[in-house]
Here is the input.
Amino acid sequence: MHRRFFAPGVLAAASVLLAIPASAASSAPGASGIGDPYYPAYGNGGYDVSHYDLRLKYQPATDRLEGTATLLARTTEDLSRFNLDFLLDVGEVQVNGAKASFATSGEHELEITPKKALAKGSHVTIVIRYSGVPSGEKAYGFTSWHRTADGGVAANEPEAAWWWFPSNDHPLDKATYDVSVQVPDGTQAISNGTLQSTTSRLGWTRYNWRSNKPQATYLATLAVGKFDITTGRSESGIPVVNAYSKDLGDNDGAARASIERTGEIADWLAEYFGPYPFNALGGYVPNTNTGYALETQTRPFYSPRQFAAGSNTQVVVHELAHQWYGDLVSVSGWKDIWINEGFARYAQWLWSEHEGEGTAQEIADYVYATRAADDPFWTVRPGDPGPDNQFHIAVYDRGALALQALRNEIGDEDFFAILKGWTQKYAYGNASVGDFRAYAEQVSGQSLGSLFDTWLFEPSKPVAATARSASISRESVAPAQPKSWRKIAATNDVHDHGH
Ligand SMILES: [Zn+2]
Here is the structure.
């Protein structure tokens, strides 16, 4: 009735609004991905999880996992529906105390429709009862669940959570965790953080683990099996819990000779990266036939094969360096993987220097000299390598070379101030390659665009003159192989996945 008084533009806008029923005007399904161009279906839109409470039971004999996940979240949009990422069978879902309907779609989507639409900015409690046999599930044709003779292990990057708990599976959504797992007496359940308590009843033992700082989903881990557990404390006072499968055979001694140095190495890394950011340390070696290692938060996963050639502290240095570069400060998107791997590799070069087995400069010179200009190594851009090359050796070696070039450009004082300051500036959050460049420019007061372009983004080997101006490979003869090279190269497959 009043429309005739409206100006045409206003009328058009009013009609659009009136065409949508009031209740659905702003309420829509959340996106099935968080918006990562490398992995469009990973994570989800419309909410942010603050805590995962996982109460599980696992039977090693059958690989059956069952339990209840309680997620505390906050909506970031009005939601009529939202997704989680998960592969096991869901029996029931409750949202804010009312039964919700659910369906599966895509490779790993669980679509949940609450009885009532959720308003933006509201607190939501999601309870999911589930069960399944993780080793029977695949997504995109692969599995991240490693069945062992005495149990199973969830550890992989970027995908590990789908096989054992429903999540918003992307590093952008970090949360705290309580992981409680019941296993038969005589079997252990290992996860992140501190072991709060264990209780035994009727032949089953429950392990209650807590990870009390924000943790990315891929950094949450679960290992069930027969482990020998060692405990201690770093000199700086962080409690250390390590776990070794009782089935490591000839690799047992070398694994222990490496991982028992966790406290020492973490304290050493703290001199470069700032105080250790979590209240627990450790590592675990299950009896898997995998080859890689992973920086699962507070307690890295190591494959037995990492120790087949003897002890190797280099892999421990790499995974512990990630506790700062990767875990404390996580990637904003998976294209930012250099923020993790370039620095973890550079920490290995610093360790080589510390051990008197070759300086970072010598290793950088060696990498530059031994990779010919036509080596495909140089076509990978560590600053944005693409999903297929996310864990290419260039992200590691060329990535660390970029840091040596930066160090030579701005000098040791600013360089090491940046290594330490960065972990404080973005502590418990996320950051991108662009954020790092901006921070390096801020601290050094220099414009570093061309240096970052040359070493991280150009798909070709920097020419000799450019390398010389970055103080890389100034000698005309190829440098000798640094003593640490073989041990470092032995960790090149730390992120070689089974898929
Ligand atoms: Zn790594």
User: Anything to note?
Assistant: The pocket of zinc ion is lined by residues 318, 322, 340-341, 344, 494-495 (CB under 6 Å). The chain has two domains: 23-225, 330-489. The radius of gyration is 25 Å.
